[in-house]
């Protein structure tokens, strides 16, 4: 479609702000994924450290001392639990499954404990942290993500500890002075790496906790083994710090061991209490400042939102994958049924007793590069009835009208009018057409000799109001051409076979379509209400009760955009026009005929919603490749490409095309696919902002050759020609080009 006339000096409103919306959405998505990855210790992940050896004068008193160490002064100080005092400590929580059961068990035994929590888990389950504090237990800082503090820089250590304090402030209104270094055990195993981390923690005011008994319950040893190891430490009535875990896996054995241990300790007269009480120190808790609570609340909300977002993305990816596979399966099955019906022939179908006269309308704007090839192919038809060709020169700035008129071909009329747009040109052509069967074709499209005959045949059925032909890409030599060739055959034409059987054809392409004049008139004619006049007209005809069918044998060869920029402009216009058509005909959803529900539902789901969310697939794929296990990502991608390749092979086979072009299909996933969904995003954003789309034109290259005696080569397939391109450059120059209709 071309730009409409407007008052002098007035420029159409340009879409503004859509890329800003896209950028904001991309930043939010990326931020959510990074926060989720960081909270799960994936971004910046550290593996369990190797043995931390080394000797220094500062390590000796730590190794020989008790399990609670203070490095805030000039030399390390340590403390041990008092006799018959046991400090049960639990690392890595809180966990929504195991922490509540553990708290219930401690309450049954009237015991207290110390929980060294991960800030990420506190942010995810703040209610559990509040319960821990409310029931008199103690909280310690075990970092935010369980990072190995011996392997990260000092700033990361401070961030890990600070973030955990903020989540504690928001969840329970406290700060804690206790800390435990991840992957630590008893003080005798401390090494130089842990010493450096402990110095940092000491400077921050923390007391660093080790353990006397590491039950290693994470390895799921026998329950009696954990109990006996704990009791062995207390053979002489000494106190002890015992390490368990309340998160990170199945803790059934941990619960059983704690239950038995507490029962045995009660019999021996031991008190199970918090770590600070066991060593005779004041509580480790302090009231958090109000600003810390606010920051912690924001952090917790952001993390929970990121978790929910990533979880929703997972469900979306699963749903999108299932829907895509179901769609491919269904459409291949419908295409197979359509092909069988076609092979059975037209027996039993209505036939023309006498071939009706046909008017072919060619709206043309700056089509000097290809108008001669188009007109000659129409005149060369083998259709047995009368055919007139009406070329409407819509105010071209080049020699389009002169070239068409100078051909001197029989049955060809050229009508010139001021530039008013493609809908107006089609309306003019319809008004001047002498016959009631109307064929519409773009000025850059070439018909095969049998095309008109095949295109008109289904109109013998009085219920059929329009017929869609089979559009082929003529300039398929380059990579962009190959991608479009695959898309036309696998996407457009395979879909149209299914739409034919389902009775919900969305578009009779402007490049090749036949219409009954009565059907066009009942639909209100060709309007300029949308940028996709072909989709608008087709939907209106379907809503009027007419059948719209697909005739695969009616082939037309068209010139596809030859550059990514031209392709973007074309698809942006198509997509925006389709959105306009969906909105214009939204009332069809509640009509009695199933067309609206089938057609608009399909377009909304598969051409708007899924493409709109398609970047999620790529983002999650990159997320899996770089911060997760890449093998599942590669496997899923390979599976989908294989399914698409099989679908493409069948679609190409149905169309009589070579399957060798499918080698370009995997590459299509890395450029072409992104271009298509970015077009949808831009179109939707433009529509949301209420902006009017600026008119763009596609430059013609002059794909088809026009020898002195026009003839299509093998299988009537027009071939790309450098000579044709030179002709286009001479005749068409660099003048603006008319908008192309969709295939």
TrEMBL record:
Keywords: Glycosyltransferase, Membrane, Transferase, Transmembrane, Transmembrane helix
A GO MF label: hydrolase activity, acting on carbon-nitrogen (but not peptide) bonds
SUPFAM superfamilies, alphabetized: Glycoside hydrolase/deacetylase, Nucleotide-diphospho-sugar transferases
Domain NodB homology, residue spans: 84-273
InterPro entries found in the cross-reference section: Glyco_hydro/deAcase_b/a-brl, NODB_dom, Nucleotide-diphossugar_trans
GO term, biological process aspect, one: carbohydrate metabolic process
Transmembrane intervals: 313-337, 602-626, 632-654
Span list, region Disordered: 715-743
Family: Belongs to the glycosyltransferase 2 family.
PANTHER family associated with the record: POLY-BETA-1,6-N-ACETYL-D-GLUCOSAMINE SYNTHASE
Name of the featured protein: Glycosyltransferase
């Amino acid at each position: 479609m071309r730009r409409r006339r407007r008052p002098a000096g007035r420029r159409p409103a340009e879409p503004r702000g859509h890329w800003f919306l896209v950028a904001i959405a991309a930043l939010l998505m990326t931020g959510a994924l990074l926060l989720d990855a960081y909270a799960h210790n994936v971004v910046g992940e550290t593996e369990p450290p190797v043995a931390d050896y080394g000797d220094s004068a500062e390590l000796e008193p730590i190794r020989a001392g008790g399990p609670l160490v203070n490095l805030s002064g000039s030399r390390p100080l340590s403390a041990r639990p008092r006799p018959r005092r046991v400090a049960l400590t639990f690392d890595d929580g809180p966990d929504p499954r195991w922490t509540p059961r553990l708290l219930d068990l401690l309450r049954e035994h009237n015991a207290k404990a110390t929980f060294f929590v991960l800030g990420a888990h506190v942010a995810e389950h703040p209610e559990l942290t509040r319960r821990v504090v409310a029931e008199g237990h103690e909280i310690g800082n075990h970092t935010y993500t369980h990072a190995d503090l011996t392997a990260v820089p000092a700033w990361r250590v401070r961030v890990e500890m600070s973030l955990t304090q903020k989540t504690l402030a928001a969840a329970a209104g406290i700060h804690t002075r206790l800390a435990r270094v991840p992957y630590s055990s008893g003080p005798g195993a401390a090494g130089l790496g842990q010493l450096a981390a402990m110095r940092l923690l000491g400077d921050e005011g923390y007391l660093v906790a080790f353990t006397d008994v590491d039950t290693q319950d994470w390895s799921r040893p026998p329950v009696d083994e954990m109990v006996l190891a704990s009791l062995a430490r207390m053979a002489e009535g000494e106190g002890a710090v015992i390490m368990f875990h309340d998160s990170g896996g199945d803790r059934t054995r941990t619960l059983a061991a704690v239950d038995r241990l507490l029962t045995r300790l009660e019999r021996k007269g031991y008190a199970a209490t918090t770590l600070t009480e066991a060593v005779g120190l004041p509580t480790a808790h302090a009231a958090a400042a109000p600003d810390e609570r606010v920051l912690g609340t924001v952090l917790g909300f952001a993390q929970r939102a990121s978790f929910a977002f990533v979880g929703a993305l997972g469900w979306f990816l699963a749903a999108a994958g299932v829907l895509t596979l179901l769609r491919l399966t269904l459409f291949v099955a419908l295409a197979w049924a359509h092909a069988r019906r076609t092979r059975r022939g037209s027996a039993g179908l209505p036939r023309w007793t006498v071939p009706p006269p046909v008017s072919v309308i060619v709206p043309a704007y700056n089509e000097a590069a290809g108008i001669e090839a188009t007109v000659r192919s129409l005149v060369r038809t083998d259709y047995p009835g009368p055919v007139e060709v009406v070329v409407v020169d819509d105010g071209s700035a080049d020699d389009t009208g002169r070239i068409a008129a100078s051909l001197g071909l029989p049955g060809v009329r050229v009508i010139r009018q001021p530039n008013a747009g493609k809908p107006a040109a089609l309306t003019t052509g319809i008004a001047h057409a002498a016959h009631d069967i109307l064929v519409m074709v773009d000025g850059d499209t070439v018909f095969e000799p049998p095309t008109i005959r095949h295109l008109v045949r289904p109109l013998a059925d009085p219920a059929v109001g329009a017929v869609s032909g089979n559009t082929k890409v003529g300039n398929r030599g380059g990579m962009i051409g190959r991608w479009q060739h695959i898309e036309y055959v696998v996407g457009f034409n395979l879909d149209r076979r299914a739409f034919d059987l389902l009775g919900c054809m969305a578009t009779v392409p402007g490049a090749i379509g036949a219409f009954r004049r009565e059907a066009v008139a009942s639909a209100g004619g060709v309007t300029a209400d949308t940028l996709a006049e072909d989709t608008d007209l087709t939907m209106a005809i379907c809503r009027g009760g007419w059948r719209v069918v697909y005739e695969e044998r009616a082939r037309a060869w068209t010139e596809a955009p030859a550059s990514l920029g031209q392709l973007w402009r074309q698809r942006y216009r198509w997509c925006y026009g389709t959105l306009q058509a969906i909105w214009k005909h939204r009332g069809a959803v509640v009509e009695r005929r199933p067309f609206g529900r089938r057609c608009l539902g399909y377009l909304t789901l598969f051409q708007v919603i899924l493409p709109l969310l398609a970047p999620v697939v790529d983002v999650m794929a990159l997320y899996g490749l770089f911060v997760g296990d890449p093998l599942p990502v590669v496997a899923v991608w390979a599976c989908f490409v294989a399914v698409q390749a099989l679908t493409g092979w069948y679609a190409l086979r149905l169309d009589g095309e070579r399957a060798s072009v499918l080698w370009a299909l995997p590459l299509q996933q890395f450029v072409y696919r992104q271009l298509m969904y970015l077009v949808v995003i831009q179109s939707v954003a433009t529509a949301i902002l209420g902006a009017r789309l600026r008119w763009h034109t596609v430059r013609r290259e002059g794909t088809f050759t026009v020898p002195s005696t026009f003839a299509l080569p093998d299988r009537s397939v027009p071939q790309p020609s450098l000579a044709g391109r030179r002709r286009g450059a001479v005749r068409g120059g660099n003048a603006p080009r008319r908008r192309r209709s969709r295939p």
